[in-house]
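Hi R.,

Here's the chain you asked about this morning:
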Amino acid sequence: MTVRRDTDPESGVAVVTLDRPARLNAIDLDTARELAAVWRALRWDDTVRAIVLTGAGQRAFCTGIDRDAVVPQPGSPYMQDDPLLTLGPKANDLWKPVVAAVEGMACGGAFYLLGECEFLIASTDAVFFDPHTTYGMVSAYESVLMTGRMPPGEVARTMLMGTAERLSAHRAHTIGLVSELTAPGAALPTAVARAAVIAGHPPLAVQGTVRALWSAGTPTRTAGYAQAPHLITLGNLPPQEQAELFGRRGEEGGGYRVR
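And here is the predicted structure, written out as tokens:
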């Protein structure tokens, strides 16, 4: 199992953990299926009233899709599969509040998850970035989701700078992506404490509020999602060229600037 779920019946809080620390909690196809199954199971568990999402270890919350994952695709250009689209709680029709606890790196496909959480709590050593453009890929769904979390100019800079720049936890807090900063190692217990407060409120009022908050951004997401597959098809380099670029950039070194 690559996803852990731990529930405290007393507080009504469940902690969902991406458990692939050796791979920086990158998502392979098994992890994507497991995580979607966890969200669907939580829909039916009335003892759980709030959820915390985190990653195992201190190095990374999640680094997006595992580069070794092979995603089979239908022959038709109208039916391309993106395994991360069904990764988040909202994509699985879960309307219980989810708080993200971020330690270390959160990048690329991690934004599919962060974009579907109610708010983020991060340690001061957390960093956020999107490597897509660096390696010849369009940042489409990630950019759409982050537009609902950050000022548009900050989204544009983060996505367009690629691996050349990382958004520090302090900067993420300043612009509103992160709601609270903690000392390293304290993001998870802090997020659990905040989730426990929410879990103590009447659940239908909480879930209705979650749905209302999500509905506020629905027109923007719907329009962005409608364009995303076409932009990816037009703008992505072929996989072999992406891999070559990845190898070349790796040989050049991993220098980057934190802001």
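One quick note: The longest strand covers residues 3-8.

Cheers,
M.
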